[in-house]
Design goal:
Elements lengths: L13 H27 L4 H14 L4 E5 L9 E5 L3 H23 L2 H20 L1 H19 L5 H16 L7 H30 L14 H21 L7 H9 L4 H16 L1
Antiparallel strand pairs: 1-2
Helix pairs in contact: 1-2, 1-3, 2-3, 3-4, 4-5, 5-6, 6-7, 7-8
Length: 279
């Protein structure tokens, strides 16, 4: 369920892209520092959005630097790191660990089982650090697993479990902005869950995997209904975002919320349209 909360590079200014990339590289650098190369391998654009959101809201002091990465070992990149980078790195590891476990349970991917084992001790320490948050996340992941086994067809209910997970991750601390941050994460989480199901529907049918859209897949207005549901999720998410007093990074954050999140959707739609023409 990674790779949906991304920028629309074509619609972004060069200076904004460089700034966004510096936070991405900063997160990569902290993942390596705290969790080694295995930690770097979990790096995601999705968590970079959270880092920029928290940075824009709380306006911490930012440390600029330069570092090399696995993808570009010969070239140093500008890094932007602040007090929230470590928290986002922790959440990135936790999500990656559970994603690997989920892939193992669903599709018996041995590579994912092995990687989950490699992250297990790191994740255990994170759970101890964020005990209450980790408990809620684990409970909702268990609910997702049980409901999938029971072939639950309530789409909103299933998406809500992952929404709760992301809501807890986005709610950094107990302050005046916690409800707004929770709801941004909640609706973003529902969007991610539904978008993932929308993208994987054909593959899940072939492999006989669970997918909440299986019963509606063949309906003539399936694509339109999915688009409407996804639009509602992002409308609620964006509404909560606009309530926050963020001055810096607003162009980047809006690029992601209003445009970037739809890039993968449009790609999936285009591929399906091309396949249907070939038949």
């Amino acid at each position: 369920m990674f790779g949906y909360i991304i920028i629309n590079k074509a619609e972004m200014k060069f200076k904004d892209f460089d700034l966004y990339h510096s936070y991405y590289c900063g997160l990569c650098s902290v993942l390596k520092e705290k969790y080694g190369k295995r930690g770097q391998m979990t790096l995601s654009y999705d968590m970079t959005f959270l880092l920029l959101l928290l940075t824009g809201l709380y306006e911490p002091e930012v440390q600029k630097g330069k570092a090399r990465c696995i993808a570009h070992p010969l070239e140093k990149h500008v890094t932007s790191i602040n007090e929230y980078t470590g928290y986002v790195a922790d959440m990135n590891i936790m999500l990656s660990y559970y994603k690997c476990k989920d892939d193992w349970q669903d599709e018996k991917k041995y590579s994912k089982r092995l990687f989950a084992k490699l992250l297990e001790s790191k994740n255990r320490k994170i759970q101890e650090r964020y005990e209450e948050k980790a408990k809620i996340i684990a409970e909702n992941l268990e609910q997702i697993y049980r409901s999938e086994q029971e072939d639950e067809n309530n789409i909103d209910k299933m998406a809500g479990y992952f929404g709760e997970i992301m809501g807890q991750i986005f709610m950094y601390q107990d302050d005046i902005w916690k409800d707004n941050l929770y709801h941004i994460g909640f609706y973003l989480g529902k969007f991610i869950y539904l978008m993932d199901a929308y993208e994987d529907i054909e593959e899940d049918i072939k492999k006989n995997n669970y997918n909440p859209f299986i019963k509606t897949w063949r309906q003539p207005d399936f694509d339109e209904k999915c688009r409407n549901i996804l639009t509602m999720m992002m409308a609620e998410c964006s509404k909560e975002f606009e309530k926050l007093p963020i001055i810096e990074y607003t162009d980047i954050l809006r690029n992601i919320l209003y445009s970037g999140v739809w890039c993968r959707y449009e790609l999936v739609r285009a591929k399906r349209s091309e396949k249907s023409k070939e038949k």
